[in-house]
């Protein structure tokens, strides 16, 4: 990780759970970390907690459900730092429900899941790539997906969530191929697929009895996934681990 000391890393969905763990670990390794989240005040709390660490942590309010918010965030990053070396696309959410539910609320929920999990990720990747080119240095995009990017548990009540994660995994390979065709040998991309992680994810999704759900099955912690990110970043520049799946022992899927 020494090769990344002082480099600029952007982490989406950085206010809690996996994202917060990634922000902390990158800062411990001496990186300048920019955390993007709707609840940016939560990242400010992390900044205070980590004030004596090797790296530095900055926060910026960003809603991946809003393209203008994404563009404004990266304009701010460009103005303050001029460049980016690492992007961790971690933001994601799900809403329990039915795809064919015709209510206005469900329409909003479906659009939010698609925008945050996939469309927003496409645009953060495009914006970060532009600033990686400005850096003219080694760079990396890490997409935090899910094991449902390759398998869908039956019966699924997660509506379009698995579809968005399948799309993220496919996009990761599309980006890799575009980099190869463009003779870009400095920037690499990886897809990281976690199994069940004990965060607020299930609670926010609207699933009933989230605590009982987590107690009933094996699970990982956010720090476990963050260590996967550190592993990917620790590989030599000529090594591209394109797919990393991390499951808790006893995972059924």
From TrEMBL:
Its transmembrane ranges are none
What Gene3D superfamilies does UniProt report for this protein, alphabetically? Answer: NAD(P)-binding Rossmann-like Domain
Q: Which domain of life is it from?
A: Eukaryota
UniProt entry tagged with the keyword Iron: no
Which SUPFAM superfamilies did the record assign?
A: NAD(P)-binding Rossmann-fold domains
Q: Which GO terms describe its molecular function?
A: oxidoreductase activity, acting on the CH-OH group of donors, NAD or NADP as acceptor
Which key words are in the record?
A: Oxidoreductase
Q: Does the keyword Oxidoreductase apply?
A: yes
**Family in the record:** Belongs to the short-chain dehydrogenases/reductases (SDR) family.
Its recorded name reads: Farnesol dehydrogenase-like
- Which species is the source of this protein? Chironomus riparius
